[in-house]
Specification:
heterodimer, A: 2 domains, three-stranded antiparallel β-sheet, about 35% helix, about 15% strand, B: alpha+beta, four-stranded antiparallel β-sheet
Chain lengths: ~350, ~350
């Protein structure tokens, strides 16, 4: 079991000594059950930090956002940034390191092991609890959550209300860390990897098209899936107009003639294009934190799209993103033994 | 303002479907699950399946009058000829929306201010005239983040509604608030019984109990606007926006947010034809305030959070003497990172 007091003490020490600029961690939210990401800069704030199954967010996103923010501020504070990272989050940081998004020295990874359980899926939990409202959730032994509601505390088997991705998780322990809290437990193997997507692709093409039509039809294009993804760090996204980069030397002609690959209208064709392009750009990079799916307000099962491509990367090239920062990325590596039957 | 005597009737719960059946010639919508966990206003296919026991819908009902995509007109041009513009004013079928929560109907009143007060938007107005809103009092809060009472509303408010329904034991108390609402009740004929004094007393009791449910409080609403003005330059805006990911959930799903973008969607380039389209936009996206020069006056997340909160609790109050927030709690519940407008107002909107 993770000793949160140790985690707090470690964060406090880093900030007291001034060895890091910020610590990104979790704290209790006023908005509901799930924790909220916190970027703390004062040692005293370390007391607010928590780690429990409500800490669902992938904080690697804040390393990416912090880099942009520092550049905008023209800050010359080069101290590293500390971040609390679960197994999946540490794999995201590894991918960012592989892509040279930032250097290893610029980040201090405070690894936290999910041990036997993983994090909670708030939708599943709400369904399980019915009319009762969850107020807090804690780890309860090796395979259960202690859920506090308005009617008291009960123990629920973790597998029943765990996030889907945690069920299929291949390494609950951080693969990359400067310090780690919690035990390195053997892999859980509750579900086999890619179980959900394998079940989906067995359906007929017509059924799948009907399924995805329904999903894309209700997409709001709020772009929460992209905004929350640590791998979507481009300044300008090819598929939409909300982030067109205008530099001092961007000409009027460039502004006028910018190709609109998709329209702003939330039509099925446009939304399908948006999601497909995003999925393709994540191939061999998505570490299955499933944040895109969690944040979607209309519950589009985006994880299926991304894991479909990860399955391809794994089965065709034995590539597991985020496993080793020293390895080249999937698209920048080549082996003589790679299958090439698809090249004609 | 003189208050007209409202029509108060009783309807057996089991007769709701029969009433709906009598409303032929109108499109009926009611809250239903669009997909797993996704409550939305859906066309009523089977009136018997309408339970009116929904939590807060994910989408507010604003799309009926302010759809996410509205075609303003069509255009086409044959080379060397004058361009042709074709009017596309909406003329929807008459529509009745059931199960509207009072916060959402109060949101509609805010939309009315924006789209009809100084300038009457024909697209909005064309739809608004055709939609009848049947509200439902919230006997228990439909969301954990409800705060309607803290922004001048109530779980049984009637603003913006044509009819207000309140569930009692096995029956609905159905009150017509407008003439359109009274017509709707008249169509139900003898399905409705006149509300007795005992029924009226029972409704008052239920409403009082609904109002007594604890909600998230905002201390001194009257002083919020002034305090926000004073705190315009507070560093706390940046601090509270630190976790913000910059998506559009809070605004797109807000019952009062009304900002839009206008684009030409060209469907054929030779000969040129297409549509001029209005779509929802949001102050949370970077290009919302992007100048053509490349300068963005709201370049960071802190200034965008400030804009969202100040528009609702300061600028709208200055311009229209009411908050542009009705306390539905969607932006709080659906924010991926727990940004909480009540906490923000508590922190920066108190003297």
């Amino acid at each position: 079991m993770i000793d949160v007091a140790q985690l707090k003490a470690h964060a406090k020490g880093l900030l007291e000594k001034g060895t890091v600029r910020t610590v990104f961690g979790y704290r209790k939210s006023t908005a509901g059950l799930l924790a909220e990401p916190a970027g703390i800069t004062e040692a005293a704030q370390a007391d607010d930090l928590i780690f429990d199954p409500s800490c669902v967010q992938n904080l690697a996103l804040y390393l990416v956002n912090d880099k942009k923010h520092q550049a905008e501020k023209r800050s010359d504070d080069k101290r590293p940034v500390a971040v609390v990272a679960k197994g999946c989050d540490s794999r995201a940081i590894t991918v960012l390191l592989q892509e040279n998004h930032f250097s290893r020295e610029s980040v201090h990874v405070i690894g936290v092991s999910c041990e036997g359980t993983g994090v909670v899926d708030a939708r599943k939990l709400a369904r399980k609890l019915g009319n009762k409202k969850a107020l807090a959730v804690a780890f309860d032994g090796a395979d259960a959550f202690a859920v506090t509601t308005n009617e008291g505390t009960q123990s629920i088997a973790a597998a029943e209300v765990m996030a889907e991705r945690c069920l299929e998780c291949r390494s609950a322990h951080p693969t990359l860390s400067d310090v780690v809290f919690g035990e390195a437990k053997a892999e859980r193997g509750l579900h086999t990897p890619f179980q959900a997507v394998k079940a989906k692709i067995k359906e007929s093409e017509e059924d799948r098209w009907a399924y995805w039509s329904r999903q894309f039809d209700r997409c709001l294009r709020c772009y929460a899936c992209r905004s929350v993804c640590p791998m979507c760090y481009c300044d300008e996204c090819v598929v939409d107009s909300i982030s067109f980069v205008i530099a001092p030397d961007t000409t009027a002609e460039e502004k006028a003639n910018r190709i609109k690959w998709i329209e702003r209208s939330p039509a099925k064709s446009e939304s399908a294009m948006y999601h497909m392009v995003r999925a393709i750009h994540l191939a061999g990079r998505c570490i299955d934190c499933a944040e895109c799916e969690r944040v979607c307000p209309v519950n589009i099962p985006l994880r299926l799209l991304n894991t479909r491509l990860e399955m391809e990367a794994f089965e065709t090239f034995q590539y597991n993103p985020g496993s080793d920062p020293e390895l080249p990325t999937l698209t920048s590596s080549f082996r003589d033994t790679d299958p090439n039957s698809f090249i004609r | 303002m003189t208050k007209t005597v409202a029509m108060e009737k009783m309807l057996k719960k089991a007769d709701l479907a029969a009433w709906m059946a009598k409303l032929e010639q109108t499109r009926l919508f009611a809250p239903a699950l669009e997909d797993e966990d996704v409550w939305n206003y859906m066309p009523v296919a089977d009136a018997k399946a309408v339970g009116l026991d929904h939590p807060n819908t994910i989408r507010p009902p604003k799309g009926f009058v302010f759809p996410q995509r509205e075609v303003l007109y069509k255009f086409s041009q044959i080379p060397s000829e004058a361009p042709i513009l074709t009017e596309t004013l909406p003329d929807p079928e008459p529509t009745v929306v059931f199960g509207v929560r009072p916060c959402d109907s109060r949101g509609l009143v805010r939309q009315d201010i924006v789209f009809t007060k100084e300038y009457e938007d024909p697209y909005y107005h064309g739809r608004r005239a055709k939609v009848i809103y049947v509200g439902q009092a919230c006997n228990t809060p439909p969301s954990a983040n409800c705060f309607c009472s803290s922004v001048g509303g109530s779980p049984c408010a009637e603003d913006g509604l044509d009819v207000l329904m309140t569930e009692l034991d096995g029956v609905y108390h159905v009150k017509a608030v407008t003439a359109r609402g009274a017509e709707l009740l008249a169509k139900g004929g003898d399905l409705f019984k006149e509300a007795s004094d005992a029924d009226k007393a029972s409704v008052l009791k239920t409403h009082a109990a609904a109002k007594a449910h604890p909600q998230r409080p905002i201390k001194d609403l009257g002083k919020v606007a002034g305090a926000l003005k004073k705190n315009f330059d507070s560093p706390a805006w940046d601090e509270m926006a630190k976790a913000c990911i910059g998506c559009g959930i809070c605004t797109f799903l807000c019952p009062t947010c009304h900002c839009f973008d206008i684009n030409d969607e060209v469907t054929c380039s030779s000969p040129c034809s297409g549509e001029r389209v209005r779509t929802w936009d949001t102050c949370q996206f970077p290009d919302f305030t992007m100048h053509t020069s490349g300068h963005n006056p709201r370049h960071d997340l802190g200034s965008r959070l400030r804009q969202r909160v100040c528009h609702k609790f300061l600028y709208f109050v200055e311009n229209h003497d009411t908050q542009q927030c009705t306390g539905c709690g969607r932006c709080v519940s659906l924010c991926p990172v727990g940004i909480d407008i009540v906490s923000v107002v508590e922190r920066l909107g108190q003297p």
